[in-house]
Amino acid sequence: MLSANLSAIFYLISGVLFILALRGLSSPETSRQGNFFGILGMIIAITVTFLSIGNFSTGFVVVLIFLLIGGLIGAFIAYKIPMTAMPELVAGFHSLVGLAAVFVAIAAFLNPGAFNLGSPGNIKLGSLIEMSIGAAVGAITFSGSIIAFLKLQGIMSGSPITFKGQHPLNAIILISIIVLTYLLCSTQSSNLFWILLAVSFLIGFLLIIPIGGADMPVVISMLNSYSGWAAAGIGFTLENTALIITGALVGSSGAILSYIMCKGMNRSFFNVILGGFGATEQSSSSQNKEQRPVKSGNADDAAFLMKNASSVIIVPGYGMAVAQAQHALREMVDTLKKNDIKVSYAIHPVAGRMPGHMNVLLAEANVPYDEVFELEEINNDFANADVAFVIGANDVTNPVAKTDPQSPIYGMPVLDVEKCKSVLFIKRSLSPGYAGIDNDLFYKENTLMLFADAKKMTEDITKNL
Amino acid sequence: MEIDPFIFRLSIFILSIFIGYYVVWSVTPSLHTPLMSVTNAISSVIIVGAIIAGLAGNSDDVFNTSSIFGFLAISLAAINIFGGFLVTQRMLAMYKKKKMDK
Q1: Measured between alpha carbons, how far is A461 from A330 in angstroms, rounded to an integer?
Q2: d(Cα B94, Cα A326) in Å, to the nearest integer?
Q3: Residue A280 pLDDT more than 50?
Q4: Does residue B3 belong to the interface with chain A, where contact is any CB pair within 8 Å?
Q5: What value of ipTM does the predicted structure carry?
Q6: Which residues is A391 bridged to in the sheet?
Q7: pTM of the prediction?
Q8: pLDDT in tens, A51-67
């Protein structure tokens, strides 16, 4: 049996290892080592917990069995999941962290003696507050992530679900959570604890349904943050340093990612949370309803343009993920490189459905990461490039964001694709993107629209090169 | 007067938020997806609480309500730990530099 002080030291060590795990992600070279630190930290935390309890009877075997079941499921998912499904996977994982936090809080509430928190009906006030916060945030994370998962998976429509009185209702529920927590702490009633959980599940659900598919990068980051705060809340209850440190790390990590995503869309956090983007009909888009001429071409034209180029910039977006076109794209680029054409990739911060989504897909297709650039790094290069190849991106290339103050995306940082000598734009139809705004780029002199499935078109171009 | 131990935990918490802030800003944007999956994995250190709950029952009463919630939480957290770290590793293994493959 480990003394309380010694195990606290070990928990601190595993907390430090988790910090190093995130630190490693500052560059791809150190990232694998970082992941190893993370695994080491986890092993230490789990081992120390077993040793400090020192109970290796029947219960221990049962714990190991449940650990193994979970571990096998997790490992199986990790090996089977296609890279394009990463946003769904992360949303699913968030929901599990949330639910685990809820379960731990329930266990602690039912049997506070095991955690040194007092006796049922007489739990220490501080612990009860921490426990309620952990449980409520965990429940919100769980139900919110489930909705995000269903939306990403396409089981639920990605369009925002709004109804009258939505915001007042949410506000009332949030206030009732605070009131319930207060009442729970003063009465210790277990009924109130269950009601608090139910209401928190409900608000998580209500908070995410009005948020549209294109805002998913913010939602996922936000839920990431919530899962961290839930863990921290439980960490305070259990007086566990490793959990407190991790919760704080994950909480701030998710918050920063949400901030980066909001900035990438030039929208405030509250604007996203309050939702309904894409549902509102914009006047500027309906005014321009008259048909404008569009130049469209086929794979042959595209191949001709690229063959005569000396530099090509590729702009991938969510459509590339949907069409699973990353491997076909990489083959096309290989052919271009054989013809001594310089190729680079331009990634908008909110391209795809989660932060860094496009980078993972390109890495999967064996694209070296030093050919992939962020918006600020590459935006000036468009003016000197011959061809911009837009595959599956739309709103993030829309010049309207720079020119039309009436547009809902005005002020959003966009890739200066139109500055290229010519633009190849793969798209299935002229329909507007998720933001519901017509893209001026379609009608530019130097734009050639390629109406086809992204994967098929890319393969055809490769054949014609 | 003695300081409540809660204050010490709060200090750790606040300082960790700042560490998180600076560490996460230094993460390269191309690794933001692995960042999310690894934060997922490490936040499942909540399994520590689940194990305490699971082992709380005495030997003749392994499955009381509290420990059953503990067992369930162990499985959920384990899915995350294994899934999160392994999928992160899988992703990170794909990030390669130029000219490595040709």
Answers
A1: 12
A2: 13
A3: no
A4: no
A5: 0.93
A6: A316, A426
A7: 0.89
A8: 988 777 778 888 999 99
